[in-house]
Amino acid sequence: MDRLEDLRLFTLVAEGRSFTRAAEKLGLSKSAASRRIGELEARLGARLFNRTTRHISLTQVGEGFYARVTQALDALEEAERSVVSQHAAPRGVLKLAAPMSFGIVHLSGAIADFMALYPEVTVDMDLSDRFVDLVEEGYDLAVRIGRLKDSSLVARRLCPVRAVICASPDYLARHGTPQTPADIADHDCLIYTNVQTPDQWSFRTAPGAEAIQNIKLRGRLRANNGDALREAALHGQGLVLLPTFIVGDALAAGRLVPVLDPWLPGPAAAHAVYPANRHLSPKVRAFVDFLSGRFGPVPYWDAALSVIKGG
Asked: What are the HTH lysR-type domain coordinates in residue numbering (predicted)?
């Protein structure tokens, strides 16, 4: 038995306060276990246990040694798990939360391709625009859009998320094209309500400026879903501010026309977020890597849009 096994024996004796139980767990005799602890104490030059015929307990030196040994053994086991996890095949149920529109249009196909690559993974996807508590509700990870709140979760950026104000050619022909943010006051705006400040849009104070101004909106249609507002915009109901992952196809086809693009702030991002466990499972690691590679710094829904510049 090497020194590492001596340390494992020591922790078992300390935790169980019994040479007999520790010896049984390691397949040793009680006398062999007692002898090994005695040799460990001799090597260290310190007594680790107080022994009586009925009781065993750690000495003050033993308590300090126990704290350091358990920390070292935990670190060693974590290192071993980390190496194994990098080479283990992803398997099991992956419980995922994601926003409704992004999940339907872009994650569904990605998940189908991911499952084809990893046939031992089963995906349980919850599509909702509500905030999900990953730890309390037992999710492995979530995809979140926008600027993240401070939290204990680990976040990995998947891709930029760019927003565009746009309208149908018919609407712009009837109402004119706004040239500055102040012109918004003369337009019907389609208002997305699932944000903290639904009745205002943010703009740069000038194209290229860092400072931000907020412009109050007026509009007859409000909704908590971006797909519904896109359809309203396509039917000429007003201006809408939506991410390009929702309106990219309509912009590329000319069914919606972007306006005020130089005045808009820089892009937000989509992130994969997951609890800060020391040991990341192979299925989560593989899925996050897959999404990062699939979307990337120029996601496919932006690739054909000449209106999107930089960022």
From this structure: 1-59
